[in-house]
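Q: How do we represent a protein-ligand complex in a form that can be generated token by token?
A: Start from the inputs.
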Amino acid sequence: MGENRRPLLGIESLRKSFGKVEVLKGIDMAVHKGEVVSVIGPSGSGKTTLLRCVNFLEIYERGSIRIDGQEVGYRDGDNRQRRGETDLARMRAETGMVFQSFNLFPHLTAVQNVMLGLVKVRRKPKQEAREIAEHWLKRVGLGHRIDSLPAELSGGQQQRVGIARAVAMEPKILLLDEITSALDPELVTEVLDVVRQLAEDGMTMLMVTHEIAFARDASDRIVFMDDGRVSAEGPPGELMAQAGSNERLDAFLSRFR
Ligand code: ADP
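Then emit the structure tokens for the protein with adenosine-5'-diphosphate bound:
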């Protein structure tokens, strides 16, 4: 145990460019089992790209990403055919991702949205998948809306379905990408409350967020990214204290003071 134990998610020297523009300039990051790590930083600093690399949505050029010691993500030059689609879906499910834009299937009800991956990827029988889906929808406070279509739900409710869908797959780590950014302010709290509950239950999470107060309250550590690099990191109190000696961090945080 201790600081040297293998992290659940280990990112080393990760580099990624779009064309000639390098947006991740050598990222090192570790998330240990049960930890909640928030990534904050100015727009364009590479936060979303980082999560997308972990979840196989972007190809990176250099470095490594490991979950439980197993390489994930696509490095440039990998033979992508090596991983069949189902295999890929299964590995992706290790890293449940919740997106800013919900990404629910509009023609499926809440419970059907949550069941889909359980049936198709986890190969659960339909009845069992339904039970699991209902369990998680209740956990996010939507036991009464399981048969609603996304269009019949508020943004906050849709996002809670998105969270239920991700956690129902029992991912080793949950990746949350600015999941409250598209919500009206009055709907933010209900979604953050669900995240807080998951954190208290021991879910390992890496979340990109603009909710600085929430990051401070709910995270074990905060990582400040700036211009494709990790510029500062530490437990919330320590990170905030570093603003005194880190101008960019100070400028960033001053917007929220
Ligand atoms: P953040 O999440 O911190 O706002 P992003 O990871 O979204 O930052 O973006 C980092 C940089 O990469 C930005 O300059 C953005 O314009 C650029 N970028 C992101 N996605 C693409 C893409 N698909 N093609 C080209 N450039 C991109």
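The two ends are 37 Å apart (CA to CA). The chain has nine helices and twelve strands.
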